[in-house]
Design goal:
10 strands; four-stranded antiparallel sheet; binds zinc ion; alpha+beta
């Protein structure tokens, strides 16, 4: 599933290509026809993101809310000289602007919301480390009162919005945290450090367009293979533990372990992240 940095990048690129102009909105697949008719031909005023939720705000306060879910994808393409081509596959929403067009496929949510409904959604969502108006106090209140493991809380979008499986595993490793540490045992100092790190890591993800969580001093540890060895996706990723099951921890050599936690894979180093 795309994490918050991906949605923030989408918001930026959509703003760059469509904001301040009339956008032709349609639903070639037919599942969003009524919604598309409401906003079709209107000027896109702004684009916003909160965690994994994307908002296109059109005139008359009509907001298209998109959540990509596990399989959703937005493609943004420069319109060729001979015009916008016929849609390929199941295009839920097509946006056509002056110079570009965007196709949305496979999203969990694509709907028109009123401003009130958008506000209610913002209130349900936790603090997003990428939003300048984020309130970490709100996240701290939830975390510090919870018996749930910090691994669960980090993925709970009502606590912190935008963190997915990769950032969760990596931020826990970077702070030497046992993923099963209950939220209420975390302590203010460690919470503050984790929050600050998420702000940095997600912001870095927005700039790069990809996730790289290795500290500068560990950049060379990225892969233990020699220069002539064929790399695998697991060894080539610039991460400490995510999807590195069975491979040696970059820092201590212990095998990285995986277990299913709340229906998602959780990866960690039992030595570096030992609370006992
Ligand atoms: Zn380790």
């Amino acid at each position: 599933m795309p994490e918050g940095h991906t949605i923030r990048r989408l918001a930026r690129s959509h703003a760059r290509r469509f904001r301040g102009r009339e956008v032709a909105v349609s639903s070639p697949q037919g599942r969003f026809t009524t919604g598309a008719e409401l906003v079709d031909g209107r000027v896109l005023r702004s684009v916003d993101a909160h965690g994994k939720h994307l908002f296109h705000v059109y005139e008359a306060d009509l907001v298209v809310h998109v959540h990509l879910g596990l399989y959703g994808k937005f493609s943004l393409v420069t319109t060729p000289d001979d015009g916008v081509p016929a849609p390929v596959g199941q295009v839920r929403m097509r946006m056509v602007g002056d110079t570009h067009y965007a196709d949305l496929r496979g999203a969990t949510a694509c709907e028109v919301l009123t401003e009130g409904e958008v506000e209610a959604l913002h209130e349900r969502l936790g603090a997003d480390p990428l939003r300048p108006d984020a309130d970490p106090e709100q996240a701290w209140r939830r975390v510090s009162r919870s018996r749930s493991p910090v691994a669960t809380l980090l993925m709970d979008q009502a606590v912190i919005a935008g963190v997915g499986n990769v950032y969760r595993a990596e931020v826990l490793f970077r702070h030497g945290l046992d993923p099963l540490t209950p939220g209420r045992d975390l302590g203010r100092e460690r919470f503050d450090a984790v929050w600050a790190d998420l702000v940095t890591l997600l912001g870095d993800g927005v700039r790069r367009g990809s996730i790289d969580t290795l500290r500068p001093e560990h950049a060379e540890l990225r892969c233990s293979h020699g220069p002539r060895t064929r790399h695998t996706p697991a060894c080539g990723r610039p991460v400490y533990v995510y999807r590195r099951t069975g491979l040696p921890c970059l820092l201590c050599g212990t095998e990285v372990v995986r277990r299913t936690h709340a229906a998602r894979n959780l990866f960690w180093c039992p030595t570096c992240q030992d609370s006992s």
